[in-house]
């Protein structure tokens, strides 16, 4: 057996722009890892994230450092133990899953789920902006079953009320991206309860979220930046009601599966989320998301163009990947 590993950088323009409390981006820069063996090639995509100290160059360097071990036949578990959690490990891990599926003609879903995967209701993201602007954008997508709305300013009450009025029938997740403070937390949570918000994601900065123990959680609260690995969960049970699992945070599908299982054991609800990337990044997450409480895998819908072939989206539904894409 001889493997060959390579990586490349690809750019996908975003349709318009994508704004959260930490800033605005107009393109998705991704790193793609390819691993070839016996004439078959598996691939995986990751999105380096500056919030976690990652860069395109740094992720490529991590992949290059792991190259010799992977080409010598390292297993997914060996890669998981040898590399830190993050985007680089995710790209390699997903490429190894895809390669195994191609070499064995056994779809990934048969290894990780009890039944054949089906379509899922995914959130559609509304970027942070002024209340009237956000309401107008929300109104364009008010027929969707699930919306994820970016907030995270000193006073988001008007934004919350505006988007709820614009989409009275949609289920709404609010994502503050660590943008609220202890001083504004209870005020914002009361407005969320008033607006019948389904879930509030990462209201306080990771590492500074102890205040969540003290408040009455009028709306369920979901950890995102606060959780990366299964080992994190024991410290979060008294602060959060749910966790957002992202492959780029966990460092691959292998770790994410363990995280999903541990969350279930601890009685935490599960959201499967994503960075802004192409259908290749979403494909393994769609399989991971089977049975999840919330699904937020709209990355390709935010792009001006996606891969071909890509995932199939119909309204609020995302369908499992075909083998021609991944897995």
TrEMBL record:
SMART domains in UniProt: MR_MLE (SM00922)
Active-site residue list: 150 (proton acceptor), 246 (proton acceptor)
Top-level taxon in the UniProt lineage: Bacteria
CDD domains named in the record: L-Ala-DL-Glu_epimerase
Cofactor (UniProt): Mg(2+)
Magnesium is among the record's keywords: yes
UniProt: Mg(2+) binding residues: 175, 201, 224
Family: Belongs to the mandelate racemase/muconate lactonizing enzyme family.
Stated name of the protein: Dipeptide epimerase
């Amino acid at each position: 057996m001889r493997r060959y590993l390579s990586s490349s950088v690809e750019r996908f323009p975003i349709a318009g722009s994508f704004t959260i409390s930490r800033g605005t981006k107009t393109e998705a820069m991704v790193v793609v890892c390819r691993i070839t063996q016996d004439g078959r090639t598996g691939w995986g995509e990751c999105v380096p994230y500056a919030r976690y100290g990652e860069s395109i160059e740094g992720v490529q360097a991590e992949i290059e450092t792991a190259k010799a071990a992977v080409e010598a036949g390292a297993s997914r578990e060996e890669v998981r133990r040898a590399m830190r959690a993050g985007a680089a490990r995710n790209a390699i891990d997903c490429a190894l899953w895809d390669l195994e599926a191609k070499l064995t003609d056994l779809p990934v879903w048969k290894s990780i789920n009890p039944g054949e995967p089906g379509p899922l209701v995914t959130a559609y993201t509304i970027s942070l902006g002024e209340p009237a602007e956000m309401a107008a954008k929300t109104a364009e997508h008010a027929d969707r079953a699930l919306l994820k709305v970016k907030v995270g300013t000193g006073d988001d009450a008007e934004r919350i009320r505006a988007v709820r009025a614009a989409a009275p029938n949609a289920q709404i997740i609010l994502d503050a991206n660590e943008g609220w403070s202890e001083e504004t937390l209870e005020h914002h949570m009361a407005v969320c309860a008033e607006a019948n918000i389904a879930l509030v994601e990462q209201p306080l900065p990771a590492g500074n979220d102890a205040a969540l123990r003290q408040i009455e959680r009028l709306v369920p609260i979901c950890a995102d930046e606060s959780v990366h690995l299964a080992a994190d969960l024991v410290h979060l049970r008294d602060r959060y009601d749910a966790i957002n699992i992202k492959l780029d945070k966990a460092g691959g599908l292998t770790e994410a599966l363990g995280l999903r299982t541990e969350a279930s054991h601890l009685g935490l609800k599960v959201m499967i989320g994503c960075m802004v990337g192409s259908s290749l990044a979403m494909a393994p997450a769609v399989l991971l998301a089977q049975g999840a409480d919330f699904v937020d895998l709209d990355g390709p819908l935010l792009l001006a163009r996606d891969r071909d072939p890509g995932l199939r989206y119909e309204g609020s539904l995302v369908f499992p990947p075909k083998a021609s894409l991944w897995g």
